[in-house]
Amino acid sequence: MPRQSPFGHLTGPVLVSACLLGIACRYDGQSKHCPEITRIPGIIPIPVCPEQMGGLPTPRNPAYFVGGDGAAIVSGHARVVDCEGRDVTGCFLKGAQATAKVAELLGITRAILKERSPSCGTRLVTVEGTLVEGMGVTSYLLREQGMSLMNENGEVL
Fold first, then answer.
1. DSSP assignment of the chain, as one string?
2. Domain span at 128
3. Residue 116 belongs to a domain
4. How far is CA 125 from the centre of its chain?
C-alpha cells in the first residue's frame, strides 16, 4: 500500500518556505526542493523567504542564534548573528513581520516551513553552534498569531 502524504489534509493557500518549492533563496544560494510539497493536490503554495523579505541578500552568510531561539528574539532577549559576527536580528524580525503580514492579507492559516532555519525552523535551530530544540523567528511569530505550522517532513508543531 502506498505511503500516505503527511500533507494530504492541506487545501487552499498555504505559506511555504520558498526554498522548499525549488527557489534558490537559501543562504548558500541553493534551494532544498521538496517535490512532495509541489505535488499536493488542492493547495495553492504561497512562497515566502523571510530572510530575503527582511532585506538580506542571496547568497548571504549563514546565521545562528545567540542567547536563545526565535521566542527570545521576539521578546528582545537574544540576537541573530552571521558567521562574521554581524548582528542581523533586525533583518530577521523585519522578514518575520512581513511574512506574517502576507498571511494576514491572504487569510492564510497554515504553513510548511524549512526545519533548522533561523527563520523557519519549527522544532530545531542552531543556538551558539549547537543544534537544539527551538523555533525560528518567523515560525515563532506565526505560531503566536495562531497559524498551524509543519515542517518539510510533515511534522506538525
1. -PPPPTTTT--EEEEEEGGGGT---STTS-----HHHHT-TTEEEEEE-HHHHTT--SS---EEEESS-HHHHHTTS-EEEETT--B-HHHHHHHHHHHHHHHHHHT--EEEE-TT-TTT-SSEEEETTEEEE---HHHHHHHHTT-EEEETT--B-
2. 12-151
3. yes
4. 11
pLDDT in tens, 77-96: 999 999 999 999 999 999 99
Question: How many residues in the chain?
Answer: 157
pTM for the full model? Answer: 0.94
User: Given the C-alpha cell 518567523, which residue does it identify?
Assistant: 138
Q: Is residue 4 part of a domain?
A: no
In this structure, is residue 6 part of a structural domain?
no
